[in-house]
TrEMBL record:
<keyword id="KW-1133">Transmembrane helix</keyword>
<keyword id="KW-0813">Transport</keyword>
<dbReference type="GO" id="GO:0006636">
    <property type="term" value="P:unsaturated fatty acid biosynthetic process"/>
</dbReference>
<dbReference type="GO" id="GO:0016020">
    <property type="term" value="C:membrane"/>
</dbReference>
<keyword id="KW-0472">Membrane</keyword>
<dbReference type="InterPro" id="IPR012171">
    <property type="entry name" value="Fatty_acid_desaturase"/>
</dbReference>
<comment type="similarity">
    <text>Belongs to the fatty acid desaturase type 1 family.</text>
</comment>
<dbReference type="InterPro" id="IPR001199">
    <property type="entry name" value="Cyt_B5-like_heme/steroid-bd"/>
</dbReference>
<feature type="transmembrane region" description="Helical">
    <location>
        <begin position="282"/>
        <end position="300"/>
    </location>
</feature>
<dbReference type="GO" id="GO:0012505">
    <property type="term" value="C:endomembrane system"/>
</dbReference>
<keyword id="KW-0275">Fatty acid biosynthesis</keyword>
<feature type="transmembrane region" description="Helical">
    <location>
        <begin position="320"/>
        <end position="343"/>
    </location>
</feature>
<keyword id="KW-0443">Lipid metabolism</keyword>
<feature type="domain" description="Cytochrome b5 heme-binding">
    <location>
        <begin position="18"/>
        <end position="95"/>
    </location>
</feature>
<comment type="pathway">
    <text>Lipid metabolism; polyunsaturated fatty acid biosynthesis.</text>
</comment>
<dbReference type="InterPro" id="IPR005804">
    <property type="entry name" value="FA_desaturase_dom"/>
</dbReference>
<keyword id="KW-0560">Oxidoreductase</keyword>
Amino acid sequence: MGGGGQQTDRITGTNGRFGTYTWEEVQKHTKFGDQWIVVERKVYNVSQWVKRHPGGLRIIGHYAGEDATEAFTAFHPDLQLVRKYMKPLLIGELEASEPSQDCQKNAALVEDFRALREHLEAEGCFKTQPLFFMLHLGHILLLEVIALMLVWCFGTGWINTAIVAVLMATAQSAMCFHMRSAVCMVMKVATYKTSKFVRVSVGNLFWTVSASDVFVFVRVCPQGASAGWWNHRHFQHHAKPNVFKKDPDVNMLNAFVVGKVQPVEYGVKKIKHLPYNHQHKYFFFIGPPLLIPVYFQFQIFHNMIVHGLWVDLAWCISYYVRYFLCYTQFYGVFWAVILFNFVRFMESHWFVWVTQMSHMPMHIDYEKHQDWLSMQLVATCNIEQSPFNDWFSGHLNFQIEHHLFPTMPRHNYWRAAPHVRALCDKYGVKYQEKTLYGAFADIIRSLEESGELWLDAYLNK
């Protein structure tokens, strides 16, 4: 697991000691095949390791030439174990005269955030309560069983089918949020190998199947998706939220322009794939309805085939086999397909509105090299707490805490929130909290504003 790349005398020194580096030297190594990162003032050559990184190739590359200490701490529950894997990659450390943070980050803020994390760890906020997740999974399974039993007992009439579809969409949406917790590794186990096994098996098994009263396997989550695909995509989002070319969630495939920078760029370049000044209207037709049934579906299978994720592919196929075994006997093939797509249509709306309400209206720009707290706070906001909002969003109404502490169990976000707010107040970092309705309305408002910026630049610049 060597660091890769060529190591000169400057790196090892003639006396066998590691080298010392300035930030200027570190920042020269940012291109694929030549990437260095800094963690806890130590310099690592990750040029070759990126290809074997469990979190994906791109996420390390997003921090090439930067201080990755805060991201390193945020994503790895067992830091001592990960440090062992990193030893062969170590090539030196920062010179004593160099600051620990790059790009003029506020050292006091970074240190206070580190202290906050240690305080929350000491309070047990990173400890998982298995009962919470067992009960949550139980209510999802119950919804699935009730849906199937309704068809079995009361037939396939329109009213009954509508109720069944709502129950299935609710179960699938809830399972999405349930699996986010598992994939983000908050259900932690003792070792990395065991953890990886649990994440892959649970992330694929329950992403596609679960126990039922009739069949051994019943699907409880919507996509029939690849856990590996979701890991690599979602970890990038957490690492650099709302950063163009680094966060895949702001890649709108030219269907929308978002933020205040991209619309002007498109307008100046006279790019007009769609009438973006009307994007707040056509969002309702090509955004929530199509993300999961069309875009995610294509991307999932394309990713599994291109990268040879055959185990993931087998589990995904089992998802479709299970569904049609359950429902074609009642509806026939044609109407089972219609029901399947209608459920996905509803679930896709739920997923899009919940995930975008805390991100799309926020600041979206190119890399600004901010500290962890500032970067996450400009890209995320919270939705006010209530029992319904907690359940409806899968605790993503605490999006700020979710992003600051991605390995914290979701049932503890409310405990961390007051501490985070106090730290933000101390340093003048804006901590935004909205109503659920206000957050939904802000999605449309932000699209309308971005469309107007595009139109002005397109016509006048």
